[in-house]
Amino acid sequence: MLRTVKPKNARSKRVLDARAPKEVEGPRTAVFVKGTHTGEVLNNVMKELMALKRPNAISFSKKNAIHPFDDNTDSLQSVEFWAGKNDASMFVFGHSTKKRPDGLTFIRLYHGRVFDMIEVGVDKFDSMTDFKTPKATPGHKPLMHFASDLFDSHPRFMQLKSMLLDLFNSEAIDSICLPGIEHVISVSLSPTPASLNTANSAPDGARDTTKPEELPKVHIRTFTVKLLASGTRIPRVELTPMGPFLDLSLRRFREADPEMLKQAMKRPKVTKQDVEKGLGQKKKNMEVDEMGDLRGRIHLGKQDLSKLQTRKMKGLKPGMDQEDGDSEEEEEEPRRKKNKTR
After folding, report:
1. Taking 50 as the threshold, does the pLDDT of residue 323 lie above it?
2. How far apart are the C-alpha atoms of 143 and 166, rounded to whole Å?
């Protein structure tokens, strides 16, 4: 169970509300951490990944002796401590050893605790400086493309896809104009082995037993988008290599705790103010106009007006019409007598 922190004053309550789960999450802040041993290739890889992540990226210049997969106490506590200090929910840890050279570990956090991790190895790297082409503007939202069915069926590639989407994703948007798409990040796989084609996914609750050597390599390619005239309303799109180009191989992983996963997938309750602003689940016969006012439509059944309760007035009693007629005739007779005396 996750520990719930109760605020002591109004200021701490505002801070906790700002960090609480939201219906529309903002961009994740990623921290790039170096291990005790990193080579030139791994340093350049982390540098260019951070360039794609800016401005939501923080770099630690000093080397840190942490081992997320080997040590389950001190290293994870250090990651959780840095996440709380920097308000970050994702880490990219680079470490190189003789057994696992040029290793990148993606760590994702939830509620200040480590959620899941996955380690990949950098087999090949082409820097941005190798391509003498225009670069995308920092801070623009990339277009992500995953070219394989394993990203939707195999648990290891599903986890990697989720990691990459959280890493490069920025603020949520409803629509975007075509000139706003400046670069594309394409993720593809090597030829899939026959063993994975026959059994793509593991059954629910079962642990994936596929060896890392049997999994195909992951190819990450980054291109800039160029829109050209086509004579129609839809422009002709050309992709220009921008870099970086990465060839990755999957290594170790750690799945999320089932109880933590259940809480992370829970959607927060939508307040009345959010509904008035047009957020949350759309309710039937309710809409928000251009001025931000909440308008609703009410459907009523057929009403029986005979049973409607009215005020008990003397003039509405039955039989009063006859009494009124007799009184009018009595009033006319004295008037006639007065006219005769004149």
Report:
1. yes
2. 13
